[in-house]
Design brief:
The structure is a homodimer. Chain A is mostly beta strands. Chain A has a domain of about 80 residues: Jelly Rolls, CATH 2.60.120. Chain A is about 5% helix and about 45% strand. The longest helix of chain A is centred in the N-terminal third of the chain and has 5 residues. Chains A and B meet through strand 1, strand 2, strand 4, strand 6 and strand 7 of A and strand 1, strand 2, strand 4, strand 6 and strand 7 of B.
């Protein structure tokens, strides 16, 4: 972790890893984690029963498929809150970089689990 | 408030107001508020005794003066966590647009209060 009150540059942190679907924590505040994720292709459908999840697109285009057979398409500068309990599947046709903002300890695969569940890793 | 799981475009929200030092809430998740703020000149020195505050620069340059006679300079794509209890004073030489991420209900002037304290307003 950085010295308290040291700036974190998101582009520099994104340059430290290549793996997709492998979130890296870049900051912590009030028990929340700020994570960067590289996204390509589709993730597993999952639900976070107890937490709202915030997606913030930094570069590229992110599609978030939602229950009710609808999907939203997010461009850089777009933010989306997926409310707790709403099943969703992130997808990107081309590599996309996003920030995820959520309480610490939330698994990326929610209640689906499985091999794509990532450990907490700091960038 | 928008329909649940509707995208929020930050540039569009920023275009809805001109006032500086007048935060607008654009999203809520898990009891946190995501606010946009236009910044010009200097704000009051203040401290949030119980919450960490997250600054995320969208455009322009933000200086955050901190106790210990130091300051950090943030450019677009930089994020800064000011830990609870650390006195700070945001400043911008030219207009700067930032996102503030913090638990709902945190006053912008912290424990300093006074006439620059802003009400909760949604964009």
């Amino acid at each position: 972790m950085a010295h308290p009150a040291s700036p974190v540059n998101l582009a520099e942190k994104l340059a430290t890893f290549d793996e997709c679907w492998s979130p890296r924590i870049v900051a912590e505040a009030n028990g929340w984690h700020f994570k960067l994720v590289k996204v390509l292709g589709e993730f597993v459908w999952h639900t976070h029963p107890d937490v709202d999840e915030v997606f913030w697109v930094i570069s590229g285009v992110l599609e978030v498929r939602l229950e009710e057979r609808r999907a939203v398409r997010l461009s850089p500068g777009d933010l989306l809150v997926v409310p707790r309990g709403m099943s969703h599947q992130p997808y990107a046709h081309e590599e996309c970089h996003i920030a995820l903002l959520e309480p610490a300890g939330v698994p990326n695969t929610g209640d689906t689990g499985g091999p794509r569940t990532a450990a907490d890793v700091w960038a």
